């Protein structure tokens, strides 16, 4: 097995592991959640309006406590996660969400990191392949020129030896 | 050793220009149409307020009047600062179909009562014990004031201490017919 095949095998394995991990977490996400679990999950998707950089789930402020109660009440009323988040967005705006919703110019925030990683990966890969190819070319040029140089050197030695003998 | 070919250089240049464009949009982009609250232009969330004198006040009962809805707390210094302006403005507007309502938030009942006797003025104030009104209105600090028109639509939100001039500006603006907001 050459180097290229080994690289392809490693990349394919990593890709499959990532997909399987993603699928597993998605299937676990929807199973057997209590109201407490759902309240906690939604609370971490909301930022506390009176705290510095803390989610409603993390904050001990009175407002965060009351917001958690409202989340719980609305879950008990049968509202979905999306409906509850929409209620808070309607009052506080999108800044209440811990992560920006993927729409409009917000798409850039979601896509740019991935595009950056992929582009960076492509550039690094191209750079490495190019460096490897240039090294190979230099090696082959050295191999081609080596016998010629050796011959010239040997001829010169022989000529000098002859001169010494004579 | 050459890292980028000619097409590679163009690709990198496009990425750099794109990033510069994004930074430009972030710095110089249009901020004129940014609203101070997502509720502006929408129907004001209804609530029932238990006032300090034991009455019940429903927002829906005030339809047809211009409403100044002020959120305050006894520990809040800017609230004390604006209390005089609120009282004197209320005296001027109380017979002109303008209603002032105070909502006490994040407070101890005894502290709120003490504040009321000192700064409360003549218009109704009430408690929001479960902070439901406050969350419905997306209040993130005190003082915050909402201006609601006679149709029950939120027209403006002001954050910070009010003065009589600010109150006049927003009350008169709220009394004007609503422009179509796109």
Q: How far apart, in Å, are the first and last alpha carbons of chain A?
A: 58 Å
Largest interface (CB < 8 Å): A-B, 22 and 24 residues
Any idea of the CATH class of chain B?
Alpha Beta
Q: Treating each run of at least 4 consecutive H or I residues as one helix, how many helices of chain A? A: 5
Query: What summary fits the major beta sheet of chain B?
Result: 7 strands, mixed
* CATH homology superfamily of chain B: Glutaredoxin
How does the helix and strand content of chain A classify structurally? mainly alpha
CATH architecture descriptor name of chain B: 3-Layer(aba) Sandwich
Describe the structure.
- The complex is a heterodimer of chains A (166) and B (182).
- Chain A is mainly alpha-helical and 166 residues long.
- Chain A has helices spanning 3-29, 35-43, 62-76, 81-92, 106-165.
- The radius of gyration of chain A is 33 Å and the shape is rod-shaped.
- The two termini of chain A are 58 Å apart.
- Chain B has one domain (48-175): Glutaredoxin.
- Chain B is elongated and about 80 Å long.
- Chain B has helices spanning 6-28, 77-93, 109-119, 132-136, 164-175; strands at residues 48-51, 56-58, 66-72, 98-104, 125-127, 144-148, 154-159.
- The mean pLDDT of chain B is 89.
- Chain B has a 7-stranded mixed beta sheet with strand order 2-1-5-4-3-6-7, with helices on one face.
- The A-B interface holds A 49-50, 62-63, 66-67, 69-70, 88-93, 96, 108, 119, 126-127, 130-131, 134 and B 1-3, 8, 15, 22, 35, 37-39, 42, 45, 106, 130-132, 134-141.
């Amino acid at each position: 097995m050459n180097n290229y095949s080994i690289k392809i095998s490693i990349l394919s394995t990593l890709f499959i592991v990532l997909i399987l991990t993603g699928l597993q977490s998605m299937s676990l996400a929807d199973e057997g959640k209590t109201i407490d679990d759902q309240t906690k999950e939604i609370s971490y998707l909301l930022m506390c309006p009176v705290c510095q950089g803390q989610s409603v789930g993390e904050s001990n402020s009175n407002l965060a406590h009351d917001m958690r109660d409202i989340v719980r009440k609305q879950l008990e009323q049968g509202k979905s996660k999306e409906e509850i988040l929409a209620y808070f967005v309607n009052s506080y705006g999108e800044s209440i969400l811990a992560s920006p919703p993927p729409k409009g110019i917000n798409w850039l925030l979601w896509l740019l990191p991935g595009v950056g990683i992929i582009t960076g990966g492509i550039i690094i890969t191209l750079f490495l392949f190019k460096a490897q190819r240039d090294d190979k070319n230099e090696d082959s040029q050295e191999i081609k020129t080596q016998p010629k140089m050796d011959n010239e050197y040997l001829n010169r030695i022989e000529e000098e030896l002859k001169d010494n003998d004579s | 050793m050459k890292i980028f070919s000619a097409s590679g250089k163009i690709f990198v240049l496009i990425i750099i220009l794109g990033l510069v464009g994004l930074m430009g949009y972030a710095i110089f982009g249009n901020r004129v149409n940014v609203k101070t609250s997502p509720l502006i232009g929408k129907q004001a969330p209804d609530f029932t307020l238990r006032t300090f004198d034991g009455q019940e006040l429903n927002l829906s009962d005030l339809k047809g009047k211009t409403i100044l809805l002020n959120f305050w707390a006894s520990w809040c210094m800017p609230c004390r600062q604006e209390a005089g302006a609120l009282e004197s403005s209320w005296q001027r507007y109380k017979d002109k179909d303008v209603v002032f309502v105070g909502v006490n938030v994040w407070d101890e009942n005894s502290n709120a009562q003490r504040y009321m006797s000192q700064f409360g003025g003549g218009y109704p104030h009430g408690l929001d014990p479960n902070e439901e009104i406050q969350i419905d209105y997306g209040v993130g600090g005190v003082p915050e004031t909402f201006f609601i028109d006679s149709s029950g639509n939120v027209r403006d939100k002001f954050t910070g201490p009010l003065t009589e001039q600010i109150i006049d500006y927003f009350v008169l603006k709220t009394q004007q017919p609503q422009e179509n907001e796109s």
